Amino acid sequence: MDKLMLLSQINLLDELPEEEFKKLGEVTLTAPIKKGTIILSPTQQMRSFFFLKKGQVRLYKVSSTGKEFTVDLLSEGNVFGETSSFSLTESEIYAETMVDSFVCTLTKDRFEDFIRQNPDIAINLITILTSKLKEMYQITESIAYKDVKYRIVLLLMQLSNRFGVRSGEWQTVGVKITQNDIASMIGSSRETVSLFLGELEKEEVIMKKPLKINTALAKELYEVDEG
DNA sequence: GCATTAAAGGACT
DNA sequence: AGTCCTTTAATGC
Fold it and tell me: Is this prediction's pTM over 0.70?
């Protein structure tokens, strides 16, 4: 029920291409951040923009019962955070580093100035947000019309296209992810995810540790688009 | 077709 | 050694 809500909410968080990232890196200072550090939470309304230079960050929400629901995973090159003009929701998002990371921090003003001075970046942000929007739309639609197995394949395809490395038909997922993370991102349960990952492994659609997906087979068997 | 519960085995620090 | 993660099975909606 509220899982659908959760997944359909839009935050400004996304990845920037390498060149733009380097430009931004010149304007900011990077700081090393240890694994398990919460760099953004509803209480610390820092109103700043973060730039993940290296590492991995998990975005999640906390339910009324105290359970954590992973919303998205970010890898190096990603931007996240809120500015006064870009925040699209009041949702209470937490951001936690999953591994030791390097993070650039920008105030909202400096980020907005940076965009004004580099119009190409605004275009890129729109492009990136559009593809992110498409991904989220695909997920919410699949929650309504498809079974859990399909949703797992879809999510792994999306993640591997965003973060993974391809070699032949196989493509790594590219992010550290638990079955719990997968479950909350597709509106399922950890145990069911475990079951279907097992099946998908037998079908040789995926391989575990490191998690990889056979994109050709996945498209053939589950008709997920894009590649 | 799936969530939930429970119970047990494995992996990570 | 203790916590987190995964697997398996039973039950019920």
Answer: yes
Of A44, A37, A43, nearest to A58 by C-alpha is A37
| CATH code for the domain in which residue A214 is found | 1.10.10.10
The protein footprint on chain B, as nucleotides within 7 A of a CB, is 1-6
pLDDT value at residue A46: 62
Residue with CA nearest C1' of nucleotide B1? A147
pLDDT at A136 over 80: yes
Q: Which nucleotide is at minimal CA–C1' distance from A35?
A: B13
Residue nearest the C1' of B3 (CA based): A189
* Same-domain status, A27 and A108: yes
Residue A82 maps to a domain: yes
Residue with the larger pLDDT of the pair A138 and A79: A138
